[in-house]
Amino acid sequence: MKLKLKNVFLAYFLVSIAGLLYALVQLGQPCDCLPPLRAAAEQLRQKDLRISELQADLRRPPPAPAQPPEPEALPTIYVITPTYARLVQKAELVRLSQTLSLVPRLHWLLVEDSDGPTPLVSGLLSASGLLFTHLAVLTPKAQRLREGEPGWVRPRGVEQRNKALEWLRGRGGAVGGEKDPPPPGTQGVVYFADDDNTYSRELFEEMRWTRGVSVWPVGLVGGLRFEGPRVQDGRVVGFHTAWEPNRPFPVDMAGFAVALPLLLAKPSAQFDATAPRGHLESSLLSHLVDPKDLEPRAANCTRVLVWHTRTEKPKMKQEEQLQRQGRGSDPAIEV
Questions:
Q1: Does the active-site annotation cover 281?
Q2: Which of 12, 58, 90, 103 is 20 to 30 A off residue 185, Cα-Cα?
Q3: 3-state secondary structure 36-80
Q4: Among candidates 237, 242, 222, 220, which has minimal Cα distance to 296?
């Protein structure tokens, strides 16, 4: 047993000596570990450089955002709205005025169907904060709707829209607000906005840079989800409509705008009160533009930004009953 342990110890000693001698020999050999060390050092240097660049970017102030054009540099939008006395008139005009107040560089031409200005409309305009011109002209009796007639039998708002066109052309007639028409050379666009429609604010920016006559779809009109131009390769090639598609301009009053310089250059262009049903828009546009030259807006007429909505006529049975009893609503409170 003692002999065996001695032999094991001797073998272990010899192996250790051999390992030590090999290590001493290797110390004298050239080492090929320098290139990997240099590569690792270069990687660390590149990372430090990138970190320094990122830190410099963080310290650098952000670029100034692009500034929108100053309001004075924008063409003015002249919005022409005919209106008439009825129970929902103030509600309609308040809603429309608050939409218009969101649009910069806008001038509201509000035209009453009356002999002169009414306190209700005058007060609403004064409180609106909008740049406005107040006009008034009474629709001739022969052109007025008779009791029980549907609204489509006779064109409405013809005299009022033409009155606004006269004012733009320098023929006066303002009863309130801005009295002077736009000076020669004014860049602007004219839009006919009925008081009962619903308008997106985006619509007004779409029309602002109109060069001739711009067009777009109108929702909830003509018995369809929408009516509007059909566009191919950026040009109007037809119209999506169900009623009399062969009209010269089968568009809704809310579906186009006219450049002010073009309108002023055509002094005879106006709406014709004797135009057949559905041809009122054509009676004006036929004096101004060829259908092939219409300018499609609203993403080539694929977006609806105005809706031909109508407020339901209020039912006043209880009011009439209370009035017969002498207990009607206070007439001094404006509704």
A1: yes
A2: 103
A3: HHHHHHHHHHHHHHHHHHHHHHHHCCCCCCCCCCCHHHCCEEEEE
A4: 237
Note whether residue 29 is domain-resident. no
Select which of 92, 159, 206, 281 is catalytic: 281
Instruction: Judge whether 81 lies within some domain.
Output: yes
263 vs 249: CA distance, rounded Å: 17
On whether the CB atoms of residues 206 and 302 are closer than 8 A, the answer is no
Q: For residues 244 and 247, give the distance between their C-alpha atoms in angstroms, rounded to a whole number.
A: 6
Q: Work out how many domains the chain is built from and give that number.
A: 1
Check the annotation: does 279 bind a ligand. Answer: no
Binding residue per annotation — 196? yes
Structure tokens, 219: 């929702």
Give the CATH number, domain containing residue 115: 3.90.550.10
Expressed as residue numbers, the domain containing 283 is 72-141+154-210+252-289
- Give the integer Cα–Cα distance in Å for 330 and 160: 31
Phi, psi of 93 (to 5 degrees): -70, -35
Residue 127 lies inside a defined structural domain of this protein? yes
Nearest Cα to Cα of residue 112 among 171, 159, 75: 159
| Residue 134 assigned ligand-binding role | no
Q: If 0-12 CB within 10 Å is exposed, 13-18 middle and 19+ buried, where does residue 64 land?
A: exposed
Cβ atoms of 306 and 255 within 8 Å: the answer is yes
Chain mean position to CA 269: 27
User: Along the chain (335 residues), what's the average pLDDT of each consecutive run of 10 residues?
Assistant: 60 68 59 67 81 78 60 90 97 98 98 97 98 97 80 86 98 96 95 98 98 98 97 97 95 98 97 94 97 97 97 92 94 93
Helix H or strand E encompassing 221: strand 218-221
One-letter identity of residue 92: E
The answer as to whether 97 is a domain residue is yes
Closest CA to 165 of 260, 275, 76, 93: 260
User: For residues 241, 247, 251 and 257, what is the CA-based torsion angle, rounded to 10 degrees?
Assistant: 160
The amino acid present at 241, given as its one-letter code, is T
